[in-house]
Amino acid sequence: MDEESIAFQRRLKRRATLDIAFHGLVLAATAFALLALAVLLFDVFRKGLGWLDYQFLVSFPSRIPARAGIYSSLMGTLWVTVITALLTFPIGVATAIFLEEYAPKNRLMNFIDINVANLAGVPSIVYGILGLAIFVRGMMLGRTVFAGALTMTLLVLPIMIITSREAIRSVPSSLRLAFLAMGATKWQTIRHIVLPASLSGIFTGSILTVSRAIGETAPLILIGALSFVAFAPRSPMDEFTVLPIQIFSWVSRPQAEFSNLAAAAIIVLLIVLLSMNAVSVWLRHRYEKRNSK
Amino acid sequence: MRLFSRISQKNALYTSIVLMLVLSLAVVGCNSGGNTNGGGDQLSGTIKIDGSSTVAPISEAVAEEFMIANPGTQVTVGTSGTGGGFKKFIAGEIDISDASRHIKDEEKNAAEKNGVEYIEIPIAYDGISIVANHDNDWAKSMTVEELNKIWAPDSKVKSWQDVRADWPDEKLVLYGPGTDSGTFDYFTETINGEAGASRTDYTASEDDNVLVQGVAGDKGALGYFGYAYYAENTSKIKALGIDGGDGAVEPTDSTIKDGTYKPLARPLFIYVNKKALERPEVKEFLKFFFTEGKALVAEVGYVPLNDEEYEANLKFLE
Questions:
Q1: What is the value of ipTM here, to two decimals?
Q2: How many Cβ atoms from other residues are within 10 Å of residue B135's Cβ?
Q3: Radius of gyration of the CA atoms of chain B, in A
Q4: Which residues in A lie closer than 8 A to residue B301 (C-beta atoms)?
Q5: Do B197 and B104 fall within a single domain?
Q6: In the listed set B242, B263, B284, which residue is the last one of a domain according to the structure?
């Protein structure tokens, strides 16, 4: 072997070692994240699983742990989430369509663009202050489900708009142009080409958005969602509480049983969140398959 | 590649509509199922309570039992803190305000300006317990002056030896509630002479269980929080006796009730809007509070008033 090939062999070996080292590094990073999650889940399930039964789902909160349940907070969460979704979806998608398809490229639109992006980063408590001032006090809605849902809508709307825009933008412009060239109007193009093609992305975005709303507590506490409600809301104008607030209220009780109840409620919250994410994955999969036919 | 057919696009829209419908139906369905209370009772109406998170467990327990006895009524309890509760009370948004301190002068004036008349009713006692780690075998009690020396805003105390010369040179690690807490207000006012005046280099948490964990895991720890949290965790932490001038007294049900646990025992109050008191459900709720409530107060970890005091409250209602 000559000098050069020995040097080459040495470099090759070093590169192989580097390769293995990098592999180990990213593996360790992944393992770290997964380990933290596993410890968290283990702790929650160990404490909460024994408390989780049908009784727990249909009972109201109580000072006696064995009697306590999450019916009012689970219903409150569902009410707020569904109304938030019903408000966010049309407004968010319409705004995204306007910004992507209709809006002229000028300074004003640029300004709006930047602001939508900035709004997505505003801390949630700020939306709580806004909701308290506008919806609860200003519009005299009181501390109701509707006021809570409106506040949540404000909070998640920017995210909805951004994800919908991404989905709309990902539709190849050749499709739009081809349809326009055949004499279609702009609205027809949007309805028949752009929306169907971007629907899977929009669905994914909207469900992730709603998932965020489910986990939020701070703005709802600020607008005055209650910590003890022993009735489920019957209309959007009823007072309410939500799961994260119930969890918080139980965790801060001195008796150890209540932290187990909180763990059980966390499991329910996780199940609701995971099933929503599963729906989003399923929807995306369904429309992607169809569109690629 | 085939372009997206009309059918697939329509299906997509239908799916989304059906999904929304199913979700909302599910909510409505569950809702109507859960609310078929065996009504037909004489009392109905909603009672709104908000305020101190220290008092909330009592209000919640009474509300729970009251609603079982009177299925037509709805009682809600919020925990905005004593100050936050008074703000809503003054604005006329709630009927009853839970308070872990007396109403302040500026709150009084604001209530007067808004035409809100109220009565103040004591409902229970709470003690602030000063706690240390079980492995701490040197400190049994502390004087109010020593507490002040430790917690004063300009305090330089770093070790137990700095507090009392014959205590070991063990690092002093402090735990206490955050600034939004009524317990913080009461402690700083009583010990440091001014509400809110405190040294800031301590581990603060609004969640008292975090403080219990902190003190339980740290040999040099010293912390303070509500009596209920100590009473529930006597196996993990120990309480120090407090010497307010007449010898050291440890916090127990009886020392808090008879006032010998000085100066860190305090009464808890509810403030009732006089206009709300005219409503029968509010009046019945309060009557329930001062009769059945006594046992509930003890059950959730606080010290009930004497029987005579509850009777005085009842008479006052009539």
A1: 0.70
A2: 12
A3: 25
A4: 254-255
A5: no
A6: B263
Same structural domain, B234 and B160: yes
Query: Which chain A positions have a beta carbon within 8 Å of B80's beta carbon?
Result: 224
Residue type, A181: A
Residues B109 and B234 in one domain: no
Number of structural domains (chain B) is 2
Instruction: Confirm whether B20 is domain-assigned.
Output: no
With an 8 Å Cβ cutoff, are A85 and B23 in contact? yes
Structural domain for B171, as ranges:
129-263
Per residue in A161-190, is it b (16+ CB within 10 Å) or e — as a string? bbbbbebbeebeeeebeebeeeebeeeebb
Instruction: Give the residue from B263, B281, B307 where a domain finishes.
Output: B263
Residue B12 lies in a domain: no
Shared domain for B160 and B205, answered yes or no, is: yes
Co-location of B134 and B242 in the same domain: yes
- Show residues of chain B in contact with A63, CB under 8 Å: 57, 60-61, 64, 296, 299-300
Residues with Cβ within 8 Å of residue A260, at least 6 apart in sequence: A47, A48, A50, A51, A65
Q: Which residues pair with B98 in a beta bridge?
A: B51, B270
Burial label for A26, CB within 10 Å (0-12, 13-18, 19+), is exposed
Beta partners for B131?
Answer: B223, B239
CA distance A52 to B248: 46
pLDDT (tens digit, 9 = 90+) per residue, A208-228?
Answer: 888 888 888 888 888 877 778
**Per the domain annotation, does B174 fall within a domain?**
yes
Q: B116 with B231, same domain?
A: no
Q: Does A193 touch chain B (CB under 8 A)?
A: yes
How many CA atoms does the CB half-sphere of B221 hold within 13 Å?
Answer: 25
Q: Are residues B53 and B114 located together in one domain of the fold?
A: yes
Q: Does A233 touch chain B (CB under 8 A)?
A: yes
In a domain, B285, yes or no: yes
* Residuewise pLDDT in 10s, chain B (318 residues): 444 444 455 555 555 555 555 555 454 444 443 333 444 447 888 899 998 888 888 999 999 999 989 988 989 998 888 888 898 899 888 999 999 888 889 999 999 999 999 999 999 998 899 999 999 999 999 999 999 999 999 888 999 999 998 899 999 999 998 876 778 888 999 899 888 889 999 998 877 888 888 899 889 999 998 888 888 888 889 999 999 888 889 999 889 888 889 889 888 999 999 999 999 999 999 999 999 888 899 888 888 988 888 888 888 877
CATH classification at residue B290: 3.40.190.10
- Whether residue B160 sits in one domain with residue B256: yes
Residue A196 touches partner B, C-beta closer than 8 Å: yes
**DSSP letter string over chain B?**
-PPPPHHHHHHHHHHHHHHHHHHHHHHHHHHHHHT------S--EEEEEEE-TTTHHHHHHHHHHHHHH-TTEEEEE---HHHHHHHHHHTT--SEEEESSPPPHHHHHHHHHTT--EEEEEEEEEEEEEEEETT--S-SEEEHHHHHHHHSTT----BHHHHSTTS--PBPEEEE--TT-HHHHHHHHHHHSSTT-----SEE-S-HHHHHHHHHT-TTEEEEEEHHHHHTTTTTEEEPEEESSS-EE---HHHHHTT-STTTEEEEEEEEEHHHHTSHHHHHHHHHHHHTHHHHHHHTT-EEPPHHHHHHHHHHH-
Cβ within 8 Å, pair B78-A254: no
